[in-house]
Design a protein that fits this description.
The chain is built from 2 helices and no strands. Helix 1 packs antiparallel against helix 2. It has about 100 residues and is an all-alpha fold.
Length: about 100
């Protein structure tokens, strides 16, 4: 799954597009893990796997924020995307913040 997130070398003009693609996929991973965690919590909040999914969600959100920060420093923030609160409470990220207290 994370194999597709790696930005491959190639023509320098394509790196910007590849970076956009990697950032988009990182955000999708965060959204999918959040959805999985929510569905699992609705089914049975005491499931042992929920702690692992929460840990993966937290790590994916941090990685997505780091990638987004790198992207913004390299290519500048996209003009059309409003900035939102990130994982660390900064106003520099568009990646959804992982709510506190969801760990089991």
């Amino acid at each position: 799954m994370f194999e597709s997130l790696r930005v491959r070398g190639g023509v320098p003009g394509n790196r910007h597009r590849e970076a956009q693609e990697a950032l988009k996929k990182a955000k999708e991973v965060v959204e999918l893990l959040d959805r999985a965690f929510t569905l699992m919590a609705e089914d049975d909040p005491a499931q042992p796997a929920s702690a692992h999914i929460y840990a993966a969600l937290w790590e994916a959100a941090i990685r997505a924020n780091t990638l987004e920060d790198w992207y913004d420093r390299t290519y500048g923030p996209p003009a059309e995307s409003p900035r939102k609160e990130g994982v660390y409470g900064t106003e520099t990220s568009t990646v959804k913040r992982v709510p506190e207290g969801r760990n089991s």
